């Protein structure tokens, strides 16, 4: 199965000038944990709910634009990548969400929650084992 078969094409994005509080509200309302930051058609990076918590809320500084806290190196996969390739990227970078891009444009998001639809429970279990912190 290919990433294009599982990805969510309904991508919520924001420009780099968007305020942190607005991004956090959007994440809450849309029930999402990552927002790609774009300028024109170009993906600049992503901001996650964890970025907001650890880089803004913890320091008491949410009055700044998302450009100041985004990850400039978004982990991306092609829509033609296999589910196994996407799972390897999640494990390698210990992340739950990937940007799906083609020719530098964002086409969708593939999250850990999408993987079970691939019908490979052992793959999902292995990704979970590898990326979730050991709570033992």
What gap, in angstroms, lies between the N and C termini?
34 Å
The count of domains is 1
Proportion of β residues?
15-25%
- Using the CA coordinates, give the radius of gyration: 15 Å
- Please list the strands of the largest sheet in the order they lie side by side: 3-4-5
The stretches of 5 or more residues where confidence is low (pLDDT under 50) are none
According to CATH, the homologous superfamily is CBS-domain
**What's the quaternary structure here?**
single chain
Report the CATH topology name: CBS-domain
Structural class: alpha+beta
- CATH architecture grouping: Roll
Counted beta strands: 5
> How much helix, percentage-wise, in residues?
25-40%
**Major sheet:** 3 strands, mixed
CATH class value? Alpha Beta
Number of helices: 4
How would you describe this protein?
The protein is α+β, with helices and mostly antiparallel strands. The chain contains 4 helices and 5 strands, in the order H-E-E-H-E-H-E-E-H. It has helices at residues 20-30, 49-57, 83-93, 121-131, and strands at 34-39, 42-48, 76-77, 97-102, 105-111. The strands form 2 sheets. The protein has a 3-stranded mixed sheet, with helices on one face. A two-stranded antiparallel sheet has the order 1-2. A hairpin with a 2-residue loop joins strand 4 and strand 5. Helix 3 (83-93) runs parallel beside helix 4 (121-131). The chain is globular and about 45 Å long. It starts with 19 loop residues before the first helix and ends in a 5-residue tail after the last helix.
């Amino acid at each position: 199965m290919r990433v294009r078969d599982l990805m969510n094409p309904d991508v919520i994005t924001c420009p780099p000038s968007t305020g942190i509080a607005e991004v956090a509200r959007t994440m809450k309302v849309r029930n999402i944990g990552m927002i790609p930051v774009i300028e024109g058609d170009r993906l600049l990076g992503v901001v996650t709910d964890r970025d907001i918590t650890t880089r803004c809320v913890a320091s008491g500084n949410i009055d700044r634009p998302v450009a100041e806290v985004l990850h400039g190196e978004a982990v991306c996969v092609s829509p033609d990548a296999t589910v196994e390739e996407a799972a390897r990227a999640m494990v390698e970078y210990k992340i739950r969400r990937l940007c799906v891009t083609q020719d530098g444009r964002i086409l969708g998001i593939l999250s850990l929650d999408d993987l079970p639809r691939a019908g490979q429970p052992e793959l999902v279990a292995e990704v979970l084992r590898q990326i979730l912190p050991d709570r033992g």
